[in-house]
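ok new one. same drill as before - structure tokens go in, u give me an amino acid for every spot. 466 of them this time. try not to just spam alanines like last time pls lmao
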């Protein structure tokens, strides 16, 4: 249907304005009744975070999302715009999205008074009703609220004239949602200005007082440690956020794997890739081990981006080997896992003391714990004694990321019990790359159980009797 283009047409259409909070509440109710998800793609939040957000929207509360890095806080905040109407009418040319039926800025009021029902209107899509600012110490009142525009003053306008103001991000998000990311990093003076907007609906620009009944839902994100530390946020502003919503990392390995599957980078594969389920689980378990380790700073957290980057790196290592050796299929192996130290770097911060060991030493400890956890789950109850006895009798096996898969297959039947263990891991004996990966998993698992010795020389390693 053709949208009204003038104020008169808008009135005739029967359109009635509503506040941002009323609009979001109305659309959320419709979504709940239709059983539609609030945050499509956010895994593991259905019973924890989502209900808290729904409560806040239904109550019309400003929200602050508290959580460590990589928990999807900004993504969820940006998704809130889906609760806004598709489009809303604004006075054409308005700097702050004035409602044609209730303009609040002086230029818009004067235009409506002059043109009446002939006032032209435009339709603003929901995507343009969202504003966002990363809080840094150099963010100023002018950035968020506004500043006197010297060019307009030079044009001959008086300082008492409201039109000399260049509005900041918050007024320009009137009738929308504005997000402050990392709220504690905002200077206290700026926090005071933000509080005035949220509580009193007025602000001052260099002594020029402007009272604008702004209709803005102000949402923020913060790290819980920073948010609760005394002196980082002024008490009145903290009190103004009626809803504090705590986010979290995936609570289970299954949820972590779902995130990896959903978020991994999709690229065109020139070679087919096969990743064993147990190898995927090692990648996810590595992140879970880091989140539980006392040697890793839990204040900073270990983002799901670590799992995603590690999984992508694992596949890249397999592709590199397949390309160099001319293999028909890229199959990641446990000997590829040390390459993850590069993608894990920067995504976890060692605690004081652990950092003296070096990132690689900490990574190896976490990786060993992750591999052993998954190994025990997949080969629990399996008889591996025959394999250990073969190594006690003198067998040695060399592994490495660039060893040809055929070299592994040669010893598969010669080492007693090894073929049976490989079969338990669903490795097709007709595909050498898969056999090689399974053999490495069995040998590394026995090493982590201290039943085999492992000598490392560069990228290669040799397993022998313990």
């Amino acid at each position: 249907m053709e949208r009204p283009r003038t104020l008169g047409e808008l009135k005739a259409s029967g359109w009635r304005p509503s506040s941002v909070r009323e609009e979001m509440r109305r659309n959320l109710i419709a979504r709940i009744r239709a059983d539609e998800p609030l945050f499509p793609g956010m895994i593991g939040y259905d019973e924890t975070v989502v209900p808290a957000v729904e409560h806040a929207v239904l109550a019309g509360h400003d929200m602050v999302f508290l959580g460590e890095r990589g928990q999807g806080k900004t993504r969820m905040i940006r998704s809130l715009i889906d609760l806004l109407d598709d489009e809303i009418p604004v006075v054409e040319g308005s700097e702050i999205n004035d409602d044609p039926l209730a303009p609040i800025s002086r230029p818009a009021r004067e235009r409506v008074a002059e043109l009446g029902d002939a006032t032209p209107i435009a339709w603003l899509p929901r995507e343009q009703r969202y504003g966002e600012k990363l809080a840094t110490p150099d963010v100023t009142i002018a950035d968020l609220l506004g500043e006197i525009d010297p060019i307009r003053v030079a044009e001959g306008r008086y300082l008492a004239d409201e039109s000399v103001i260049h509005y900041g991000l918050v007024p320009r998000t009137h009738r929308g949602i504005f997000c402050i990311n990392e709220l504690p990093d905002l200077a206290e003076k700026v926090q005071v200005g933000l509080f005035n907007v949220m509580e009193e609906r007025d602000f001052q620009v260099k002594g020029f007082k402007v009272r604008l009944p702004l209709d803005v839902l102000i949402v923020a994100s913060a790290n819980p440690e920073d948010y609760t530390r005394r002196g980082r946020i002024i008490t009145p502003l903290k009190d103004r956020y009626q809803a504090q919503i705590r986010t979290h990392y995936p609570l289970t390995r299954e949820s972590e794997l779902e995130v990896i599957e959903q978020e991994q980078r999709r690229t065109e594969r020139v070679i087919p890739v096969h990743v064993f389920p147990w190898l995927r689980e090692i990648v996810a378990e590595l992140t879970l081990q880091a989140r539980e380790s006392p040697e890793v700073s839990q204040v900073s957290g270990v983002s799901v981006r670590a799992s995603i980057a590690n999984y992508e790196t694992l596949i890249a290592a397999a592709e590199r080997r397949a390309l160099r050796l001319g293999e028909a299929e890229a199959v990641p192996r446990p000997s590829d896992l040390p390459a993850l130290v590069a993608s894990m770097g920067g995504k976890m911060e060692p605690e004081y003391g652990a950092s003296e060991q070096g990132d690689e030493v900490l990574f190896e400890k976490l990786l060993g714990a992750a591999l052993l956890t998954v190994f025990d789950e997949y080969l629990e109850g399996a008889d591996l004694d025959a394999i250990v006895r073969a190594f006690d009798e003198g067998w040695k096996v060399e592994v490495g990321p660039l060893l040809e898969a055929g070299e592994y297959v040669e010893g598969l039947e010669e080492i007693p019990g090894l073929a049976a263990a490989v079969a338990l891991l669903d490795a097709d004996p007709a595909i050498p790359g898969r056999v090689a990966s399974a053999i490495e998993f069995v040998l590394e698992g026995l090493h982590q159980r201290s039943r085999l010795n492992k000598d490392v020389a560069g990228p290669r390693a040799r397993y022998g009797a313990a």
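The chain has a mean pLDDT of 90. and btw The chain has two domains: 7-246, 253-465.
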